[in-house]
Amino acid sequence: MYHFFVSDDQVGESEICLTGKDVNHIKNVLRMKMGETLSISAQKEYDYLCSIKEIGRDQILLQIEDIVMEGTELPCEITLFQGLAKGEKMDWIIQKCVELGAARIVPVAMKRSVVKLDAKKAEAKTKRWNAIAESAAKQAGRSCIPMVSSVMTMQEALEEGKKCERRFLPYEGAKGMKRTRKLFSEISAGESIAVFIGPEGGFSDEEVEEAIRQGYEPMTLGKRILRTETAGMTVLGILMYLLEQE
Predict the structure, then answer these.
(1) What does the alpha-carbon distance between residue 4 and residue 18 come to, in Å, rounded to a whole number?
(2) In the chain, fewer beta carbons within 10 Å around the N or the C end?
(3) Rounded to a whole number, what is the largest CA-CA distance in the chain?
(4) How many CB atoms lie within 10 A of CB 13?
(5) Helix (H), strand (E) at residue 228
């Protein structure tokens, strides 16, 4: 079933009005007809099951048929602090981590990041990454569109991450899968989680030491060294499996 997002002011008591680019997508790309059903989210913990009532030139009117109360969001809010990766890797990371349930993604300029962005390029990239996040959220049937924030420095990101109740630092120098399992098993529904992932070159020793000093939990993901585009997805995949509720 196709899935779209709207703002609160588009939702009435029994109808929802779709406007903007979604109108063209439904009419001319998907070629949907009157009476067909689709799912709508208004950035809440539940979704609307709707049927197409009226197709106009600039808007589509939907009839609310049912409210699906369980929604599709994980019971914990997970923020991925991702070290800037080169090429299309960031696009891939954002798309897949949105599919896996990340609530927010923060690109981080770290010491070993190959990519260097000035303010103008960073702004353009952030706009693109948010478009990718929205598209991935639609495809995955998310109840909310995860936000990709502006690029932060490592110190800014560490301060931001301290707002979360659980703070994880997976990196190749950490040891002990028993400790990793223990850290994951202690997570409770409703908690906020920060996950820091290094860039292609990994974290510098200074970054690891500073993160640990600020209360971040170093952890291993196994004996193999994972690429930057694999590590975050691995953590999110584990958390999704552990946290997903019926």
Answers:
(1) 9
(2) C
(3) 60
(4) 5
(5) helix 228-243
